[in-house]
Design brief:
alpha+beta; 2 domains; 5-stranded antiparallel β-sheet; 32 strands; elongated
């Protein structure tokens, strides 16, 4: 019988392929990195810079002044002899009312004739007015063109009507019981419009009065027909007047330390220094400017644009998105002491179970005259604090919220309180050099609401 041979399969020795190992390690690393990227927080970083913000301190203000409206005792045709927004002396002829219309017809005929001329002084004044209007023209306020047209027309009618009236008076045509002339009872500016704002003062105005888009005024036209009791003109009798500006609370607060300010009138770009006072009505805030001259330039205006020439604010510039809020416990300063290995500022906290008193170092985030602000993660609500060298205790309860940003200089988030000086829609200027705040070149989280205390920042 033939001997059966047993065949044993030869196994090759295992050889570790270093290339495969390296490939696997790299693959695992890449997968871990990709997984981490899609699961961890991605926080943008902003470097704090020194900067300024251009402020827009232009406001539309309500003009209030001493105004008296005069009405007609008669019905008839109205004519005026002093230009709109011109100065009238005592007993000057202002206007007339013709009950029958016969004298008014003669005035119109005389005004239309070649014998009625305009002198050189008139054309000199007209040229000056046109030049001033051209320099201050703003296409966004095109309605001023119509006001200018009315003013020029009234100046023409003043000269023409006055010349015609003189001729008719000399001929005796005005000697009639139905032709009535009004004389100025006191010196002042004459205006031929009413708007219902004549009795508004700095004491009785409301927010509803300062709505320039809803403003309407009624112009008293030359050679128009009026009824007894209708307004025929109004007179501005004082050079003392006010402009009421509705402002933001930040501007209101900024002006509390003074009562004098430089302003610029956008109407003609002239500047001057004026006194002011502040007034608050609920959540509405106002700056009331006091002026004592140049009323003639604004006699025909009820609203005007004024720029407050405030000093430009500078400080540390940060994006608004970095700003967040955090709650802190407030503890009286007399309960703090220094202790521990590093002689840090902290509190003696009583253990609720053993009644033992232990020193706990605490970070200070802000202070007031009486309290320190401490993190709610270090001391919990209800903790009993013992005053140093005393048996007096204090239970931690009161909280207060601070505005601030998260500083990430050390790779983790630390809340820092800020003192806001000025803010617009995108950026905020904060005070530099505060004890518990930020400094120039600090790195802060770009999205403050997406970060918590001690978060690691990659």
């Amino acid at each position: 019988m033939a001997e059966t041979k047993k065949i044993v399969k030869y196994r090759k020795p295992f050889h570790l392929n270093i290339e495969i190992v390296i490939f696997v390690i790299i693959l695992v690393y890449i997968l871990f990195y990709v997984f981490s990227y899609f699961t961890e927080k991605h926080i943008g970083i902003y470097e704090v810079t020194q900067g300024t913000i251009a402020e827009n301190n232009t406001y539309t203000g309500l003009i209030v002044r001493s105004e008296s409206v005069y009405t007609s005792d008669y019905s008839g045709t109205f004519n005026y002899y002093i230009a709109d927004n011109a100065q009238a002396g005592w007993n000057n002829i202002i206007c007339s009312v013709d009950e029958t219309g016969s004298v008014s017809d003669q005035l119109a005929a005389a005004a239309a004739s070649d014998t009625t001329g305009l002198d050189s002084d008139y054309f000199k004044n007209l040229k000056s007015n046109v030049s001033q209007f051209t320099q201050s023209y703003d296409s966004l306020s095109f309605y001023h063109v119509y006001d200018f047209k009315e003013n020029v027309s009234s100046q023409v009618m003043e000269s023409v009507n006055m010349s015609a009236l003189s001729d008719l008076t000399a001929s005796g045509a005005t000697a009639s019981d139905t032709f009535h002339i009004s004389y100025a009872q006191t010196p002042g500016l004459i205006a031929y419009y009413t708007d219902g704002y004549e009795n508004i003062t700095t004491d009785n105005f409301t927010a509803d009065d300062i709505q320039p888009l809803d403003y309407k005024k009624t112009t008293i036209k030359n050679n128009s027909t009026i009824a007894a009791g209708d307004p025929i003109y109004k007179q501005i009798t004082s050079e003392n007047w006010n402009i009421i500006l509705p402002v933001q609370k930040a501007t209101y607060d900024r002006l509390t330390d003074s009562n004098v300010i430089e302003i610029k009138f956008k109407k003609d770009n002239t500047s001057c220094w004026v006194n002011y006072e502040l007034k608050a009505q609920g959540n509405d805030y106002y700056v009331i400017l006091s002026l004592h001259n140049n009323m003639v330039r604004f006699a025909g205006d009820r609203f005007t644009d004024v720029e407050l020439l405030l000093t430009e604010r500078s400080g540390l510039k940060i994006p608004n998105s970095s700003i967040t809020e955090k709650a802190f416990y407030t503890v009286p300063k007399e309960y703090f002491t220094r202790g521990g290995d590093s002689n840090s500022l902290g509190l003696y906290v009583r253990d609720s179970k053993t009644n033992a008193v232990n020193f706990v170092a605490t970070a200070i985030f802000q202070e007031s005259e009486t309290d320190y602000y401490i993190d709610e993660e270090e001391i919990t609500a209800g903790s009993i604090i013992q005053k140093p060298d005393s048996n007096d205790t204090f239970e931690v309860q009161a909280q207060s919220t601070l505005q601030g940003v998260y500083n990430v200089n050390k790779g983790y988030a630390v809340f820092k309180q800020i003192d806001i000086l000025y803010q617009n829609e995108e950026y905020t200027i904060v005070k530099a050099g505060t004890d518990f705040g930020i400094s120039i070149y600090d790195h802060i989280a770009l999205e403050g609401d997406a970060v918590s205390e001690d978060d690691l920042i990659n």
